[in-house]
TrEMBL record:
Residues 441-462 are annotated as: Disordered. This is Family 16 glycosylhydrolase. Residues 441-452 have a biased composition (Gly residues). It holds the Pfam family Glyco_hydro_16. Residues 194-433 form the GH16 domain.
Length: 462
């Protein structure tokens, strides 16, 4: 998810993008498979990418129509909306370790909408492969042309190309001239990290550990007061939803669609909303850490629609270095999603079964982040569930723990109020030579207008 401070709209593309990013894009009907012999360079492997033959060669996933207005080239284009929908087709004969270039044109019909052109690497049984999702996003009022070269991931036997619009604001978006070609120049897999504003202060030496027996210490923790995820998607994360008990249990409250209490959410500009529906809570380390072992003993909020998450986050407007633990995964509370990012356009992600997380007991969520060589190992209760070795961050980042409400991909929050619980947090720095410390525009100030709670908004133990 910005799922965190610097982004405007963040569509989380999950395991599948993110999930992060486009986790909503899971369809049970397969797209047409287009057989290919030897695949020549510079030939568009997407059939009818300009929609001049209407929907021929595409599998229709709904909420799409071919139009003869609002076109980028030729005489036709595809209009997506007003609800979630799209189309897709599969291209056989593209093997692993092949450089291909995805391109196309798109635009948003109205502010707040977004069109996507994407590609998924598939194995021989049409299963989507971890780290094999690549997307182009379009949200300007006029058509833009974009392209992205990528290398297919291990196990690839075909590529599914798709066009998509998320639920958005119930309006429309447009795409045209979709193409996939063999060859291209790969982007930098690990772009340079530019420092914006002052460097963050170094974290205190040694292991960080907090069991919250002394409450939420402002010398260790910030409390977020921000909104992300898109306009009108949620009411942000609020200090009033953060509490701590006298025996050191942090309670992070999420208020769903049935909430009718006195809490009021906020908009991205900090203005108040009319109600407190879809409001969450988040605490964040005051200091930024890089490579290390990050552990949290927690109980997730056991309701669909609200995401319980633990994540590092650095965004300077050019790169997005992030590591995520998020539940639910694939709209299931019995699954968890793990993701690594270096830019918003691509990530490496996996959804793993973990039904124990809703058994009411405490569980330890941990990832070991290495920057030399780059790798992130994800564990639950000391069991390794996934290793990411691509799109691995290097920038020192604050560590976030929280409950927030994304747009659709976690389900619908048909509940009033529930809580996520934190027992303790531990960070063991590795101090590896790949670590990078850079500024992301933050000044270190707290209080009104900063995105962080003032000292008067920190909860007293109860």
């Amino acid at each position: 998810m910005n799922k965190k401070t610097n982004r405007g709209v963040r569509l989380v593309v999950s395991a599948i993008l993110g999930l992060s990013m486009l986790s909503a894009l899971i369809y049970s009907v397969p797209a047409p498979s287009l057989a290919a012999g030897p695949l020549p360079a510079e030939t568009n492997l997407v059939k009818n990418g300009g929609f001049e033959q209407d929907k021929a060669d595409w599998e229709d996933w709904g909420a799409s129509a071919v139009v003869s207005t609002d076109v980028q080239s030729g005489t036709k284009a595809l209009k997506l909306g007003p609800t979630e929908g799209g189309m897709g087709q599969k291209i056989d004969g593209i093997s692993e370790n092949t450089i291909v270039t995805l391109s196309g044109a798109g635009k948003a019909g109205t502010p707040g909408e977004k069109a996507w052109i994407g590609a998924d690497c598939l194995d021989g049984s049409d299963k989507k492969l971890a780290g094999g999702k690549f997307v182009l996003g379009f949200e300007s009022a006029a058509y833009e042309r974009k392209s992205l070269a990528f290398r297919t991931v291990p196990g690839t036997r075909k590529v599914q190309v798709y066009v998509y619009k998320n639920p958005g604001n119930g309006k429309f978006a447009y795409v045209d001239d979709v193409a996939l070609k063999i060859g291209g120049s790969l982007p930098d897999d690990d772009p340079p990290i530019k420092s914006v504003g002052p460097l963050p202060p170094p974290h205190p030496p040694g292991v960080f550990f907090d069991d919250f027996k002394n409450g939420i210490d402002p010398e260790k923790w910030l409390i977020a007061k921000q909104q992300w995820g898109g306009e009108n998607v949620n009411g942000g994360v609020l200090p009033v939803n953060v509490a701590v008990t006298r025996d050191g249990i942090v309670e992070l409250t999420g208020n769903g669609d049935l909430y009718s209490g006195p809490v009021r959410g906020i908009n991205r500009d900090g203005s108040m909303r009319a109600d407190g529906k879809r409001t969450g809570a988040s605490i964040v380390t005051k200091y930024a850490y890089a490579s290390g072992s990050y552990e949290v003993r927690a109980k997730i909020l056991p309701k669909l629609g609200a995401v319980s998450a633990f994540w590092t986050f650095f965004n300077n407007g050019e790169v997005n270095h992030e590591i995520d633990f998020e539940a639910p995964g694939d709209k299931s509370l019995r699954k968890i999603m793990t993701t690594t990012w270096v830019v918003e356009e691509r990530n490496t992600s996996q959804v793993t079964d973990f039904p124990e997380q809703i058994d009411g007991n405490w569980h330890v969520y941990r990832f070991d982040w290495h920057t030399d060589p780059k790798r992130v190992d994800f564990y639950v209760d000391n069991r390794l569930i996934y290793t990411s070795s691509t799109n691995v961050p290097r920038a020192a980042s604050k560590f976030w723990l929280g409950v927030w409400f994304p747009k659709e991909w976690a389900g619908t929050p048909n509940f009033a109020t529930d809580k996520m619980y934190i027992d303790w947090v531990k960070i063991t720095p590795f101090l590896e030579k790949g670590d990078v410390r850079a500024g992301n525009g933050e000044t270190g100030e707290i209080g009104p207008g900063t995105g962080w709670a003032g000292l008067n908004e920190y909860p007293a133990p109860r």
